[in-house]
Write a structure and sequence with these properties.
By secondary structure, the protein is mostly helical. Among the domains are: 2-132, no CATH class; 470-538, no CATH class. Helix content is 67%, strand content 0%. The protein contains 21 helices and no strands. The chain has helices at residues 2-23, 33-56, 63-84, 91-114, 123-127, 134-163, 177-195, 201-224, 230-233, 247-263, 280-310, 316-322, 328-353, 373-389, 392-416, 427-443, 451-457, 459-464, 472-487, 509-517, 522-532. Helix 8 (201-224) runs antiparallel to helix 11. The radius of gyration is 39 Å and the shape is elongated. The chain starts with a helix and ends in a 6-residue tail after the last helix. This is MHD1 domain-containing protein. Residues 369-479 form the MHD2 domain. Residues 94-237 form the MHD1 domain. It comes from Gossypium gossypioides.
Length: 538
């Protein structure tokens, strides 16, 4: 009897709602049908509890429970049909689901209150009310919405990267326009997410930020790709040889031949090189772009945290603590990417773009006539481009890497410069003076790098240069001693040829050996001939 009456009342409410919807179909902002129906059912349930249940208790001890269970079932049937037809997340759908969730809570509350004195505490009635799971439906819809947004972002990233030319002149900040577009889409996605009328922003936010993190990580990876590495630009070390008294003169002719080739090569500061590799301006643009992402990701993370704090979310302490890790992969990749690009830029300048004045020109033939000045003049042009192009927060890092690469380049010329180079003891003063000029370029009368930073990275060069001023007999003695120290008693019968590590050090056998190889001195030549049978320079 109770169920029959409730069914009749439910149908009457449905007809009333439908009639009301028809009469207001031309009005804007009308509420969805099931939202209005939920409100009507809730009103009916509380009325039934207050008016009819006290009378019906004569025939059934849980009259209110039976009534709300029936109403729960009736509305649930309508809701199930509605949910089965849901495709996209819309405000109307969210409104219906939230109304259903509120209705269910009202009905369960009535059933529980009505069953306090029953033997099972109302468990039998509650079992007849299978949950609508509106929150679960909302959660799945939001996740689907997030997936759609992320798919769109991935497409946008790829499309913008395909069109990107990495020209710093496209905007005054000197970073890639594609970064602006990608970050705009990210910002729109976050704003749209927090505009969704849901109560689970904090719970589902990590799904969105994790996806965004991966998309930006993809962008960063592409921004670094195709730029090479340090090893890409460093020339191969020639085989070890020994000097002869004639090698200096032979070197002069080789220098003339190489210098003619060098004169035909022009500095390509800031342009794409003729071999298709990236120009320095393009590398600077990539560095700026990653720096821009690094800054904006921090801003986005703080903005998301602020939104979460203002949203209807539980366990806020845990959620906001977790937001500290938002975009963690991308932020870390930006830091590492900037480091890699700075190193690549420096090595490309020193060992590729300026190889004609460094590797092909410096100290080829007579040291006094092939000094470092041409290298410094062209290097200064690149430093100007960097100063004008690179973001101020990473400018010092790029210039520092160029300085370190320059020091490495000088040491490579001195210790692995190949047959065109040979050094006398009296060349030490010239080389030391050239190194001072190189350091002065980066110090720039106090307007460049800090003196202590220059001193820090010049330690190795300063430690090795005195070897070029050390007499040959002392060098041989040091070399023998260090080789015995390194290889032990097995080196007493025959000195092993120490391997090249590239980690130059005045106490490292291979470094000492190379100074001897480039020493234009009969004593050094005879020692190398007798000990290792090294060939003469051709």
């Amino acid at each position: 009897m109770i169920q029959g009456c409730v069914l009749i009342l439910f149908k009457q409410i449905m007809e009333k709602v439908k009639s009301s919807k028809r009469s207001s179909k031309n009005q804007q902002n009308q509420f969805p049908f099931l939202s209005i129906l939920a409100q009507g059912v809730s009103t009916l349930a509380f009325s039934e509890k207050a008016i009819f249940s006290p009378l019906l208790k004569r025939w059934h001890p849980l009259a209110a429970g039976v009534a709300v269970a029936t109403l729960h079932s009736c509305y649930g049937n309508e809701l199930k049909q509605f949910v089965s037809g849901i495709g996209d997340l819309t405000p109307d759908i969210l409104q219906v689901l939230r109304a259903a969730d509120k209705l269910e809570k009202d009905l369960v509350q009535i059933a529980v209150e009505n069953s306090v004195d029953s033997e099972d505490g109302g468990k039998s009635i509650i079992r007849e009310m299978p949950p609508y799971e509106a929150e679960s439906v909302i959660s799945n819809l939001v996740k689907s919405w997030i997936t759609t947004r992320l798919d769109r972002l991935k497409e946008w990233v790829d499309r913008n990267l395909q069109q990107e030319v990495w020209d710093p002149r496209t905007n005054k900040e000197n970073f890639a326009p594609s970064a602006v577009e990608v970050l705009r889409i990210v910002d729109e996605a976050l704003e749209a997410f927090f505009l969704l009328p849901i109560s689970m922003h904090a719970v589902l936010l990590s799904d969105l930020t994790t996806g965004i993190d991966r998309c930006i990580l993809h962008y960063i990876s592409k921004a670094k790709s195709g730029c090479g590495s340090q090893s890409t630009f460093v020339p191969s070390m020639p085989v070890l040889t020994r000097c002869s008294t004639r090698s200096k003169f032979v070197g002069v002719f080789k220098r003339k031949e190489k210098f003619q080739i060098a004169q035909g090569r022009k500095s390509q500061v800031g342009t794409t090189n003729s071999n298709g590799s990236l120009g320095i301006s393009q590398l600077c643009c990539r560095i700026n772009t990653l720096q821009h992402f690094r800054i904006e990701l921090d801003v986005l993370a703080k903005r998301a945290t602020s939104h979460v704090r203002n949203s209807e979310s539980a366990h806020m302490d845990n959620i906001t603590d977790g937001m500290g890790k938002a975009f963690e992969l991308s932020t870390t990749a930006c830091v590492e990417g900037i480091k890699q690009l700075c190193e690549i830029t420096a090595y490309k300048i020193v060992f590729h773009d300026l190889s004609h004045v460094l590797w092909d020109g410096l100290y080829v033939g007579e040291v006094s006539s092939s000094r470092i000045e041409p290298f410094l003049q062209e290097l200064e042009q690149y430093l100007e481009v960097i100063s004008l192009t690179v973001h101020y927060r990473v400018r010092t890092r790029v210039i520092t890497e160029v300085m370190k690469a320059s020091f490495d380049g000088l040491l490579l010329v001195l210790l692995a410069g190949g047959p065109p180079r040979a050094f006398h003891l009296q060349d030490y003063e010239t080389i030391a003076d050239d190194f001072k000029s190189l350091c002065d370029l980066f110090w720039s009368n106090g307007d460049g790098l800090p003196a202590d930073l220059i001193q820090k990275f010049s330690t190795t060069v300063n430690a090795i240069l005195p070897l070029f001023h050390t007499d040959t007999d002392s060098l041989i003695e040091q070399f023998q001693y260090m080789t015995l120290e390194t290889y032990g008693s097995s080196a007493k019968s025959k000195l092993p040829l120490p391997p090249t590590t590239g980690q130059w050090n005045p106490t490292e056998p291979n470094t000492l050996l190379r100074v001897l190889c480039y020493r234009s001195d009969e004593t050094a030549a005879k020692f190398l001939k007798k000990t290792y049978n090294l060939p003469k320079k051709l």
